[in-house]
Amino acid sequence: MIDKKSLTTRRQVKYFTDKVPAEQIIKDIIADTIAYAPMKNNKWDFILEVYDNHWAEQKQLLLYKTVTKWEQNYDTIKHWTFSDHKTAAADPDCKSQQYNNQVTAPYLIVARKSEIKYDYEGTGSSETKKAINAGSIAATLGFVTRQHGLYGGLCSCYTDSFNETIPPNMIIDNKEDFYFMFGIGYVNAEYYKKYYDAYFPSEIQNMDLNIPRPTPNQVSEWMT
Amino acid sequence: MTTNIDAIKNRRQIKYFTDKIPDKVIIKEILSDTVKYAPVKNNMWNFKLEVYGPEWAEEKQKMVLNTICTTPLFPLPEDSVSTVYKAYKEQGIKNGYGLKYDKNIHRFNDQVTAPYLIAIKLSKNTYNLQNESQDVLDVAVMAGCIGATLSYLTQEKNLGGGFCQCFMGSDKLGIEKNFIANDKSDFLFTYSIGYPDKNLYVRDPWPSKPNVNDVVEWMT
Asked: For chain B, what is the domain count?
């Protein structure tokens, strides 16, 4: 049974416990997403790659390439060694730099652009339409994951700007290759409580209170 | 909130709506919940939602011409778009719009004439507190997140909804401009809301959904 609770209690989760969800739950989440997400003419111009907990080492390497808002600190970070990235990523207070830890979740799903398409009509799609379809899958994955009692975190941050110091990984090697990544697991409530001083799951959708959600009037216009 | 609604499971793409107008308050709730609950990266909106209510019926009727369906093998007709639209409606009245529809006549996306039409358009920095730049395809992914969420919350209110991404500019088609959308450059998609017309609605013969193995690869 899918209920509205799965929509209203979905949260963007970045930190997960080591507990690995049952493989069957992940398969159910993916099957439900494919069955129910709205997709224009049922066209798929991407595939969902599933990386389980056996890929932990590669996910850890991928983590360093998901460094956020590096542009404003580029002059500093460009001098960092790989060890500096490791230290920064391990800092729970994120004092120097933030990374998208959700890519290290027990399960990571990558929506990868693909030449192998599911396009029954063979009529193709524009790049914008493909991306809109990918977004529909991303939202549905988030809601269905919650429906199955797990949490997830989306990520589309990735940079090759520090390739000289950050080693390659076997999951992503080009920003242009994918639409989004989605980590799935059990939320690390202790971590959130300790370092974010916030009860989890919070009534507030986004954990970063510096960037509140917009009000409807800020993003929609009732045309008269 | 614990109401069992099966909103995700029961959602369907609706193309034909009755004239009955949903309560404006319900539409506002759908929009408000969508803004509140949809996943949007860093709460960054480089697009906007424009809401066109029932009083825009005439403009929606003009806009339906912009939604002509073409493919590489079935390109724009030589006849005027309004002539082709007339043929489409005559066929629909005679044979029905679903499985029995004549494939040699261009189709149009009637859902844009629904009582409520939400146009999702590119709009830089609509809400971008951190002044972050964003690639247009990333914006489209976020708009897709909004689209899916809108559709589930519409279903949750027992209303029907329909997407439309088929859109051609008015100048290209040589048609009269409408007050909703004329330019493809900022158009992402529309989402229509109303009560499904069960008498008119016959499921179009869209390709079936893929099997899991068609679109998923379990990496080993």
From this structure: 1
Q: What angle do CA A154, A5, B143 make, to 5 degrees?
A: 40
CATH code where residue B122 lies: 3.40.109.10
Q: Which helix (H) or strand (E) holds B67?
A: none
pTM of the model: 0.92
Quick one: pLDDT at residue A92? Answer: 78
Which residues of chain A neighbour B220 with C-beta distances below 8 Å? 54
Q: Which residue of A has its CA nearest to B179?
A: A223
Q: Tell me the residues of chain A between 140 and 199 that have a Cβ less than 8 Å away from chain B.
A: 140, 142-144, 147, 154, 156, 179-180
- Is the CB of residue A146 less than 8 Å from the CB of residue A10? yes
Residues 25-44 of A with CB under 8 A from B: 27, 30-32, 34-42, 44
CATH numeric code, A5-188: 3.40.109.10
Report CA torsion sign: A43, A125, A158, A147: negative
If pLDDT is split at 50, 70 and 90, which confidence band does B3 have? very low
The answer to whether the Cβ–Cβ distance between A135 and B140 falls below 8 Å is yes
Query: Is residue B103 scored above 60 in pLDDT?
Result: yes
Say if B131 is an interface residue toward chain A (CB within 8 Å).
Answer: no
